[in-house]
Amino acid sequence: MNIVFSSDKKEYNTIKKGTEILLAENDGFNQNIELFVKFQDRPEILINKRKNQIHIICREISHYYRALNYAIHHMEEDEFQYQEHVCFERNGLMLDCSRNAVFTVEKVKFLIKTLAKLGMNVLMLYTEDTYEVEGQPYFGAYRGKYTKDEIKELDAYASMFGVELVPCIQTLAHLHNALKWPGMDKIRDSADILQPEKEETYQFIEKLLRSVKESFSTSRVHLGMDEAVMLGLGNYLKENGYKKGSLIIREHCNRVVDICRKLELKPMIWSDMYITANSTGGYYDLPENTDCSKWEKPKKDLGLVYWDYYHDDTRTYEKMLDIHAQLSDNVIFAGGSWIWNGISPNYSKTYACTKAALSTCKKYNIKEVLCTAWMDNGAETPMDALLPGLVLFAHLDFHRDYDETILKQEFRNCTGGEFDDFMALDNFDSLFLNAKENKEAQNPSKYLLYQDPMLGIFDYHVKESGVNTKSYYQNIQKCMKECAKKAGKYQPLFSFYEKLAAVLADKADLGMCIKSAYDRSDRAALKDISQNVIPGIICNLTDMKSSREKIWMNDAKPFGYEILDIKIGGVITRLKSTGSRIDNYLNGNVLRLEELEEERLPYFTKGMDKRENLWNRIISGCDLNDTI
């Protein structure tokens, strides 16, 4: 293939190698094609094919790759013209690399290529303590932190595809993994938060920022600073007395921003602490038409990132964007692809919230939007599950309105997967919803997997629902099996979920079945559970665990998998113990099973969403950690 390039040599050299990489993945192009590329400062992508010539006009490198990918998948057409409008100057992904899973360089490169095919131009690496900082050996210890060389390699690869690799770190809260180590007591306010207004704290933060500057080519940096709920109420309070949170956050933020300016970095922060510290209420709880004129405010050029993954009504986004406009001239929006809700993704909520959010962002002329992919509570959901949410962010950038037919084609052409197959994963957590969309973010696939069968903490809700859980998950198992057959490179993903469905088909109501048999003194049923049902679940669970481990080791560094290993392994151990307890009862070695005589209480009271994402609260009524 011959590329005729209309811009400068630097851009040609940048896209040449990336073009070769994308073409090597496809057989659609041949050497007889001539590709004419021209960059113009305009918010459109234009593609024109006539016989063996393809003309592309676009604004930037990532848009060129989107156009190239479109052309690759329409090579059978002798002639075509295609145009798209670009709604956002920047549109990207924030990848959580701090919730135990630090994704491999190769996996991140896969994401970078996917972003380029989608025309997205930003990748933020969310790293609380999972990056190398000179002179800080405990920072990210035993966590698989990225070395500077790894980040530089990713940065160069991203640049080749027109993707800006941006560091997202923490300079206030969310630092419990860093602050737990020896020698950190001098800069610790509370377990999770740095102590503001201490010179040692700012010396530490400068080390973090110098490491960032040395590793990333961009001048932009996300400083975090969110959810510092206990700010100024720990060691700071003991040493300085009480001070309003709004004053502390402003002064701390100004100090950190000054360091950024010294290092020629352009900072942004999450916006919630400025809002909650000034209003003393919840982030989203402010009334419409809130007047922020008397608030403590950040410097106007500081980027404020408004995060919202929860609302499917445009009025909430309008209210929040109005408030943000009073606080900053540089407002960025962050929505999300819901893969942090347990074992399975939630696309119902992802799609409802993203459509409302991005339509409002277009109305308010927001220049940058981000799709976050958090990995709360240990990165239990495989990373590939983020793709439907990511593709939606791109789709709504280059199309004024949502069109599912076009989106499905874009999903296939950019990811190599089938949209409907991925969306079937949404069914895992719709158990109690009678085919309704899971906008409540229920997650029974997690708590029914992990809950102890002898305690049955969530059995009240299984019984109350009247759902035949065995039939429900057997149907999902069949669906996942069919998806796996045609999934190609995503076969491991669907195979894992097939095994999860097989486990849940027998385990979801296991505790209820055990208690019911015990209450009616049905010794035959108890024996069948002990001798047949439990061994079957353990067999399926062992297969599931092996499948999940393979995915983890392919996607991420090995650090952090030990926690997931313990979680799933703990279910196997408790199933074995359950069998032993039942056998001892049947053999007369114990006269009663006290666990089964405990009343099954509702875990979720009236009005609560049936959602529990904390493993330590699912597995027992007792404390996992000592209370001191």
TrEMBL record:
Gene3D superfamilies linked: Glycosidases, N-acetyl-b-d-glucoasminidase
Coiled coil: none
InterPro entries registered for this protein in UniProt: GH (IPR017853), Glyco_H_20C_C (IPR041063), Glyco_hydro_20_cat (IPR015883), HEXDC-like (IPR038901)
Domain Glycoside hydrolase family 20 catalytic: 91-299
Transmembrane segments: none
Lineage top rank: taxon: Bacteria
Domain Glycoside Hydrolase 20C C-terminal: 420-612
Assigned keywords, A-Z: Hydrolase
Family named by the database record: Belongs to the glycosyl hydrolase 20 family.
Protein's name according to its UniProt entry: Beta-N-acetylhexosaminidase
Species whose genome carries this gene: Blautia aquisgranensis
